[in-house]
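Hi support team,

I'm opening this ticket because the web form for multi-chain structure prediction keeps timing out on my end. I have pasted the exact lines I submitted so you can reproduce it. The total is 539 residues across two entries, so I didn't expect it to be a heavy job. Is there a limit I'm missing, or should I split the entries? Thanks in advance, R.K.
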Amino acid sequence: MTDLLLQQLVNALSLGGIYALLALGLAAVFSVLGLINFAHGDLMTITGYTMVFALAGDLPFAAAAGLGIATAALAAVLMERIAFRPVRNASTATMLLTSLAVSAILQVLFQNLISARPKAVPAPAALTGAVDVLGMDVGAIQLLAIGATALLLVLMTLFLRRSLLGVAMRAAAADFPVTRLMGIDANRVVAVAFAISGVLAGVAGVLWIAQRGSVDPLMGFLPVLKAFIAVVLGGLGSLSGAVVGGFALAFIEVALRAFLPEGVLPFRDAIALSIVIAILVVRPQGLLGRRVAVR
Amino acid sequence: MTGASPPALIQVEGLAVHYGPVQAVRDARLDVGRGEIVALLGANGAGKTSVLAAIMGLAPVTAGLVRFDGAAIHGRPTERIVRLGLTLVPEGRRVFPKLTVAENLRLGAAARRRHDGAAAALDRVYGLFPVLAERRSQDAGTLSGGEQQQLAIARALMSDPKALLLDEPSLGLAPRIVDAIFDLIPALRAAGLTILLVEQNVELALAVADRGYGIAGGRIVLEGTAAQLRASGGLERAYLGLAG
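Hello R.K., no limit was hit. The queue was backed up. Here is the completed structure from your submission:
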């Protein structure tokens, strides 16, 4: 029984890590721009296709993954420059629709220029195997997910606390005009927020793809939807809330998958979302969110 | 205008500000000479804050021009204007509540043209506002209103500006704190700053200002030395819709 519990704990932590990375990227952009970027999931897909081509070019898996993450970061910055900057001062609805359009365009491009069918991304044997941790078999990829998430969360915290640009990002989340009044370049803060979201989506993409072994044009949709739920659950606008929300959602999902009776299992997503809604009814501002201040 | 004196540090001519279809400022003209303290007086909603926001590039300038130190700055992004040595202490203080006092001040120094002086600037503002030194690692949101106003001013001073725009520094503060802040304004001028002060409290503003302008309905309707404005008494005040 303890073994089963520990195994489920590892599952929840590794899935939660991926959700948390994606949610943190969404929240980083949302906190400075007020934009929920629904093209965020397509950054994962871009990472995947970059890896497909890199692996076809005989690059080792780690190098392909690194290249995939870098491409996602670059794509995120380009996305902001080309699509979002022109509508930066437009209404939230305009920005939201712009991000849906970016997502739709990218998916059509993937389908027509690459393939509508899944492309295989073979993970090396070292990742598909299991590792013995305290007498328990744990998937190597899950350990990697947990380790990568922990490392990125530490790096992100250091960046936000120590660097001037990180402090400026936290300030911009509270009051963008006054942040500019400090002489902080608005475009730079926004570009850095997108670059960070790209790196986080890229790492999440590598972990996601290594588990499923393939990439297809619509791959990013489901995880970004989950990440969006995580962001709302944790508290829209709160970075730590996004991380907590990601882990909370994964714990709910894994617990339902493990402990629901067989007959009810097909309804687990509906049940998971009902639990999320119940939490939001009690705490409309999310787990860590503060009540919306009127400016 | 002060006749043949050197050109003013801040010059505003024919300024118009629109928020969508609403015009907040029309044909406003004012100047602030080097080392002067100038008050911009008016009732709530008269357009005072809009004038300051327009100077800083935070409100849309739809006509007219703004010069700082001889250079046209209207249409430039706020962050560039700040780097020229002009800064604003916004109405309602607007410190970053979830950042510590020290982090707020660190951001204030981001606009410095030379970064080597930031440590000295920090020592100076901690000397000027000892309470901020005591609370340096506290979140700004936990400070009292008066302490937050001190932090807002200190944060602006961290960039070593040539000119400071102060928007309603007395707003919502206890009289004792207001006195302390208005004692500070002449001291800042003595240290070389030029100050444009927006206030609803006319007595307070004219006690420290050299000159003043009155604004009503988005227009500059009154101009004079502080002594003239003090002497002119009730009529214009009624016109400006001012109390006190």
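A quick check on our side: The longest helix of chain B spans residues 175-190. Let us know if the file doesn't open in your viewer.
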